[in-house]
């Protein structure tokens, strides 16, 4: 198995606050990896650091073996790595039609054949061509998140960084969007790194996970171990109790 994303002894300091301290994770190609932990434990910071959106103090990040330098990310990086955030409304420009939103990444990367690609992308996320000339405010939360997923997938990345991608959605819509993500991961052999406060979602979606606390990884588990409550840290046990979506096997 090749390593898609390798994070080695990564530290992030905001002003004087250590948001990540010596965090190391290796995520295999095609794997779905979860990051869980209490609020403020550094889950989003880890994703943001990979995307070049957090100030690195030390350590290294490699994508398919290539070292990322500093916080500047190349166009080639965004061909390989895309991010989907919790709030699609915040990440979709309100005055742009869905067509325009999907065209933008194609234009940035000089990808031709945009008509066909936009139609295919909308189809892949379960939205027909009828959505193409609508605006984000004319869509439901779940539809907007489908657009955000289409926009991430349209440049054919190999890695998706998913930051609470369904936590703003109602439970039934959440399940639909998670199923969609799982489907595209299988179809495209994508690597996922998924932040979620919901241990039920992580057990369902991920092969392995890291439990984070105060900017460090305190425990590493397979989802099977989590489902069987085969955990060693009381902190993880408390997270399980606090996560109402989590049903112990
Ligand atoms: N831009 C920033 N400037 C200063 N501190 C920040 C910044 N971004 C995050 N932090 C701090 O870093 C810590 C980790 O934040 P992070 O967003 O990674 O947590 P999280 O585990 O994703 O939490 P949540 O589940 O609430 O999203 C928090 O204490 C947060 O206040």
Automatic annotation (TrEMBL):
<dbReference type="Pfam" id="PF00005">
    <property type="entry name" value="ABC_tran"/>
</dbReference>
<dbReference type="GO" id="GO:0016887">
    <property type="term" value="F:ATP hydrolysis activity"/>
</dbReference>
<keyword id="KW-0067">ATP-binding</keyword>
<dbReference type="InterPro" id="IPR003593">
    <property type="entry name" value="AAA+_ATPase"/>
</dbReference>
<feature type="domain" description="ABC transporter">
    <location>
        <begin position="5"/>
        <end position="239"/>
    </location>
</feature>
<dbReference type="GO" id="GO:0055085">
    <property type="term" value="P:transmembrane transport"/>
</dbReference>
<keyword id="KW-0547">Nucleotide-binding</keyword>
<dbReference type="InterPro" id="IPR027417">
    <property type="entry name" value="P-loop_NTPase"/>
</dbReference>
<comment type="similarity">
    <text>Belongs to the ABC transporter superfamily.</text>
</comment>
<protein>
    <submittedName>
        <fullName>ABC transporter</fullName>
    </submittedName>
</protein>
<dbReference type="InterPro" id="IPR017871">
    <property type="entry name" value="ABC_transporter-like_CS"/>
</dbReference>
<dbReference type="InterPro" id="IPR003439">
    <property type="entry name" value="ABC_transporter-like_ATP-bd"/>
</dbReference>
<keyword id="KW-0813">Transport</keyword>
<dbReference type="GO" id="GO:0005524">
    <property type="term" value="F:ATP binding"/>
</dbReference>
<dbReference type="InterPro" id="IPR050319">
    <property type="entry name" value="ABC_transp_ATP-bind"/>
</dbReference>
């Amino acid at each position: 198995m090749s390593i898609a994303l390798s994070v080695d002894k990564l530290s992030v300091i905001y002003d004087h606050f250590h948001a990540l301290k010596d965090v190391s994770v290796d995520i295999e190609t095609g794997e779905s990896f979860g990051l869980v932990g209490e609020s403020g434990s550094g889950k989003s910071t880890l994703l943001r650091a990979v995307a070049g959106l957090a100030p690195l103090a030390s350590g290294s990040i490699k994508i398919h073996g290539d070292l990322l330098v500093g916080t500047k990310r190349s166009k080639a990086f965004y061909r390989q790595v895309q991010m989907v955030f919790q709030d699609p409304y915040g990440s979709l420009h309100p005055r742009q039609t869905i067509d325009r939103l999907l065209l933008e990444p194609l234009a940035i990367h000089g990808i031709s054949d945009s008509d066909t690609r936009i139609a295919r992308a909308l189809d892949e996320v379960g939205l027909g061509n009828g959505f193409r000339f609508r605006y984000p405010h004319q869509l439901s939360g779940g539809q907007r998140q489908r657009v955000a997923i289409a926009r991430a997938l349209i440049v054919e990345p190999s890695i998706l960084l998913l930051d609470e991608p369904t936590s703003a959605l109602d439970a039934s819509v959440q399940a639909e969007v998670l199923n969609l993500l799982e489907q595209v991961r299988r179809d495209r052999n994508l690597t996922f790194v998924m932040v979620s406060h919901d241990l039920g979602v992580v057990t369902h979606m991920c092969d392995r996970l890291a439990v984070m606390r105060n900017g460090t990884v305190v425990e590493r588990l397979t989802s099977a171990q989590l489902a069987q409550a085969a955990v060693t840290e009381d902190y993880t046990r408390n997270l399980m109790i606090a996560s109402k979506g989590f049903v112990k096997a």
